[in-house]
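Why does this matter for the project? Reviewers at the last site visit asked to see concrete outputs rather than summary tables. In response, this paragraph embeds two records directly. Each consists of the residue sequence and, immediately after it, the corresponding structure tokens. Nothing has been edited or filtered.
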Amino acid sequence: MIETKEVIEFFDRLAPGWDAEMIRSDEIINTILDNAAVTGGKDILDVACGTGVLTPDYLKRNVASVTGIDISPKMAEIARAKFLQERVTILCGDVETTAFFPACSSPTEP
């Protein structure tokens, strides 16, 4: 099993050149976002957002907000520097252990 620390170190090493190495297909990205119903007014959670490479695509669709989370501090740092809009929030953390909302009680609990 890969250790979390190794994953963080790997992506921290790649972060500075991530955007330059990115290969985009607007057609594929638009198909994915269409299938995910990313449309105006929605709040988006981008897990493993990296340097925020999809954030401009969300914003073009006039979403209400984008919250990106990445486990790599360097990836999150780059994304934060790129997107200063009030409706974009970039977090550094592990999505499996980050509390986004208060715990909800199940329908069977009083």
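We now turn to the second protein, recorded in exactly the same manner.
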Amino acid sequence: MHHSLVAMLRHVNPRVFYAVTNALIIPPCLLFSPSRGIAYRYFRERHHLSRRKAAWATYRNHCLFGQVVIDRFAMYAGRKFDIEIEGYDHFQRLAELPEGFIQLSAHVGNYELAGYSLKAEQKRFNALVFAGEKQSVMEGRQQMFQGNNLRMIPIRSDMGHLFDISQALSDGETVSMPADRIFGSDKAVTVNFLGVKARLPQGPFRVATMRGLDVIAVNVMKTAPQRYKIYVSPLEYDKQAPRREQVTQIATLYAHELQRVITLHPLQWYNYYEFWNQ
């Protein structure tokens, strides 16, 4: 089915698939998916919308998520999107340094597009990805990444990906990883996020502090049917501070930047679980 979708997207405008998804797929899915209640509470409690507006935002949120998934396959089919980059100079500056750096992402917008847009010919880019994706998705990603000096590091249950990350950073390469979900280890750092305490995984922040690496946050948000905006922001922390304090500083800066982006694009929050867990 994935291969058929890619083949069709070579000839059919993605907007046709948007319409089918919005009208025929999303409504019945909302009836049976637990993500409906999670998204609804997100809009009610974090953005303080009325019941009617929160319900409508929940529907639009799922429609946008469907469009992001379609856009990924459209990219595999060779479709191009208009991309605006805010803060590209921060990425370029770090890409020109001999040392590696950390790029933090989140489950918002369409982060995968960053791998096709932020290029550093002189420095290999390593992206941490979920190892359980369908083979067709991994093949599509690999095809897109081939010309961008980028390699995928699958997250493995035996934590073997940590050795790949360490080696990449030792070689002065870039490592991209999500920092908004706790996985593999329960160690977390608590931050203020959208007015409530939230727990973020320590791992991505500790990787940076172990080597005193520079860190940037990158979020890719959909702004129109065929247009995206990439936000690149440096997370400048005190590298002379105690390690635990450094971790807290980066996590706080990351949460602040993620909140800024989510405030601008509240419909594109795709963490469909009890993130705040109150």
